[in-house]
């Protein structure tokens, strides 16, 4: 596995994740690839940050587990597990759908 020393940094296109949401990698492109077990620090559009973890990772899809958090306005966002896929350009990931917890 190719685990970076620090969490991967991503910016979300909204205050929470949902099917169709985009995540843009903020780390410089290089040879490193996402791997199962990697931590992802997700900065949401309202400035809040949550630390998720990849449960599975492959070339065409990954499973991202995100903890519950609150938006800047205090709205609770429940913990969720998401299927994510490449977003069509380097450094871009698209949320495809929610997976059952477990």
What would your notes on this structure say?
The protein is mainly beta. The chain has one domain. The protein is 0% helix and 46% strand. The strands form 2 sheets. The chain has a 7-stranded mixed barrel. A two-stranded antiparallel ribbon has the order 6-7. The two termini are 22 Å apart.
Domain tally: 1
Order of helices and strands: EEEEEEEEE
Could you list the spans in which at least 5 consecutive residues all have pLDDT below 50?
none
Strand content: over 45%
- Widest sheet: strand ordering: 1-2-9-8-5-4-3
Mean pLDDT: 90
Q: What structural class do helix, strand and pairing data support? A: mainly beta
Shape: globular
User: What is the percent of helical residues?
Assistant: under 10%
Number of strands: 9
The rounded Rg comes to 13 Å
Biggest beta sheet summary: 7 strands, mixed, barrel
Total helices: the number is 0
Q: Span from first to last CA?
A: 22 Å
List keywords for this structure.
102 residues; single chain
Quickly describe the structure:
With 102 residues, this protein is mainly β. 0% of the residues lie in helices and 46% in strands.
Topology:
Blueprint: E1 8-12, E2 22-25, E3 39-43, E4 49-57, E5 62-66, E6 69-70, E7 76-77, E8 80-86, E9 92-99
Parallel strand pairs: 1-3
Antiparallel strand pairs: 1-2, 2-9, 3-4, 4-5, 5-8, 6-7, 8-9
